[in-house]
Amino acid sequence: RAQNQDLMDFPVPAIWEVRRSGHNWTNQQERYQAVRSLCQWIKFGTCITIRLKDGTVPIHYRPSSATFDQKNVKATGCVEDIKASGVIITSFLEEDLRKLGLRLGSRFDVDVNSRRFKDVVFDEYPYVRAMKGGWLATLEPEQGRVVLGILDKVAKHSPADLAGRARKGDKIILLRNDDKPKRLRLKEKIKKMEELNAGTVHQQEEKKKKKSKSALHSKQKRATVVMNVPPPPSPFGSNSPHTSDVGGT
């Protein structure tokens, strides 16, 4: 009975959810709200009635500080912070990526400290668009800034190290990459080679057909020439009276 009484006294857990793509991808306001409510529940027992709650706090976007060229192909900003893992937090916002014509799955180039990183993928959790070991860009939950990192990076060199030991204040440039991804380029190249090979085979077959037709036509022509050869003239002439007596004399 005492054990059952203890189970009855155990509070039913409350599940509060932050509806945002990401693993532990919460902002300060969301964490503060959760801890504050937990403290109130421990002290007063007032929040346990809220069993399910959407604890998502909208991101407060700030005005963009990026500068663009006339064709909106290049955007210039800076490095605002480096996380302990070496991930680079930039001054770019989602609207800057949109202005460059980028959306989820788009690829672009990043230039920082005179180092160019190509085919950076704009992605979100669970990062199915980026390739393992490749550069990716996503949005952090505090101010919606663009974050640059490497998917499943386990080597000793962090993204900031690879970017020339990037640090706060470094100039960073985003370049729209109109080139198709390497995988698509390779597929198109293979397709063209297959079409070229198919065309070559077709041309060879056509040549064989023409050659066989030409050979058959030559044989038919030779046969016609042979059949049209006139017979040798008679030694007695066509009007000779001895023609009918040739076999009898």
Description of the molecule:
With 249 residues, this protein is α+β, with helices and mostly antiparallel strands. The chain has 5 helices and 10 strands, in the order H-E-H-E-E-E-E-H-E-E-E-E-H-E-H. The protein has helices at 2-9, 28-44, 94-99, 159-162, 182-227; strands spanning 15-17, 52-54, 67-68, 74-82, 88-93, 107-112, 115-122, 135-139, 145-150, 171-176. The strands form 2 sheets. The chain has a 7-stranded mixed beta barrel. It has a two-stranded parallel ribbon with strand order 1-2. The longest helix is centred in the last third of the chain and has 46 residues, at 182-227. The chain starts with a helix and ends in a 22-residue tail after the last helix.
List keywords for this structure.
elongated, 249 residues, 33% helix, 7-stranded mixed barrel, alpha+beta, disordered C terminus
Structural class based on helices, strands and sheet pairing:
alpha+beta
Spatial extent as radius of gyration: 41 Å
> What is the H/E order?
HEHEEEEHEEEEHEH
Q: How much of the residues is beta strand, in percent?
A: 15-25%
What's the mean pLDDT score?
Answer: 79
SS element count, helices: 5
How is the biggest beta sheet arranged? 7 strands, mixed, barrel
Number of strands: 10
Query: What does the overall shape look like?
Result: elongated
- Please estimate the helix content: 25-40%
Terminal Cα separation, in Å? 149 Å
Low-confidence stretches: 240-249
Order the strands across the largest sheet as they lie in space: 4-5-9-8-7-6-10
